[in-house]
């Protein structure tokens, strides 16, 4: 069966730039245009509104210069106005060959905003179209507020379409300017229009005010529309336009009779670039391109993925240049941990896997964000902890850090069931902690090993509540050894590493000689 081709016009650089607070630079517009046409393979791009600013003129010139050299000029469009040819002059300066002329698609807009009759409006439109023809510029015509026009003044819309059918134009662009259509209405309005003017190319331009942009785009295609306007990440005026990634996936998965030229596998790359250039973060749950949408969080899902891919749908991440991941947190089961270990090339026995899983769940309970990068640290901490007896426990502590006062520590340490308390000031919180500890041990006639090295590792690419690992090297008169601590707080890491040292030393204090902990120490 021969497929019906739908043209995709990307308007990220025009309507998308109308997202509040967004302005693309010249080089950003050029880079995005290149990616859209060459990599994503959209059919057409709308890159600016005419007459906006000097900077915009520069940006459009940069795109048209590149597009001319690479054979894309006919696919680069600019929104223009019914302004007796001022926009056409701007287009000539910018080197653009296709204008998308903004006209009124509802009687309401025509009478209240332009205060003109349909006949006056049509005559001025005809003038601009003819000027364009004279200058070698092709015209597509936008019917602004067309959706409300269909609801409230359909006679005007059809009178206008009858007029346009006689004009020298390429396409008619039908926007749901205020994003008010339901999918049912979208289908009905477009079906009626296509039935009356089957020879004309119509594009549909959805807005997303009710979050119906994708559904309306789907119904527009079902109704026989010839082209769709989309934006990367759904950027655009107010709630934005129909999002490129979702609409493309819907067409590919649910409309097998439709052909589009877009390369799904480039969608994510373009989305991330637009996110960076625009400064508008992609919501984590945004279908196809959001951070979380290919992450299985529940252990039961990871388990099901191992058993005949029970929790997969057709939206496979690889289609879009992405990868499935398995979250680590309080709902992770063993299967999630195993999936992450596999990726790291690690294998644990059942007992250790259970311990690591338990530790990840505990961290998740503390609202810590645990990432795959943290896993090697957690494993080393959990496996390392097996080596220590629990004879000494840091029961509680208060660490203070304030302006103008020396950091101080009050600590309570349980040694073989007995709790001892001590207090000290130091050069930093951990220094104060160590001093208090050395006073506490000294009062029992014991000296602690000297701290000779202190190294902090933070898991690569981690967020602000990332886990860190502190490795401390200790020295007695006879041996040097290391202990490590893991936490999201650096001082707590060091205290955990110190607690392990105390357990190693417990019972050996007579055997090894420690050192006075810093002469300058004060209580
Ligand atoms: C400016 C116009 C074409 C528009 O984006 C709309 O009506 O939605």
TrEMBL record:
Gene Ontology terms: biological process: L-leucine biosynthetic process
Gene3D superfamilies reported in the protein's UniProt record: 1.10.238.260, 3.30.160.340, 3.30.160.740, Aldolase class I
Single GO term (MF): 2-isopropylmalate synthase activity
SUPFAM superfamilies linked to this entry: 2-isopropylmalate synthase LeuA, allosteric (dimerisation) domain, Aldolase
Annotated ranges, domain Pyruvate carboxyltransferase: 6-266
Xref: InterPro entries: 2-IPM_HCS-like, 2-isopropylmalate_synth_dimer, AIPM/Hcit_synth_CS, Aldolase_TIM, LeuA/HCS_post-cat, LeuA_allosteric_dom_sf, PYR_CT
The keyword Lipid metabolism belongs to this UniProt entry's keyword annotation: no
Claim: Transferase is one of the keywords in the record: yes
Keyword annotations of the record: Amino-acid biosynthesis, Branched-chain amino acid biosynthesis, Manganese, Transferase
PROSITE patterns, alphabetized: AIPM_HOMOCIT_SYNTH_1 (PS00815), PYR_CT (PS50991)
Protein family: Belongs to the alpha-IPM synthase/homocitrate synthase family.
Protein name: 2-isopropylmalate synthase
Species this chain originates from: Pedobacter cryophilus
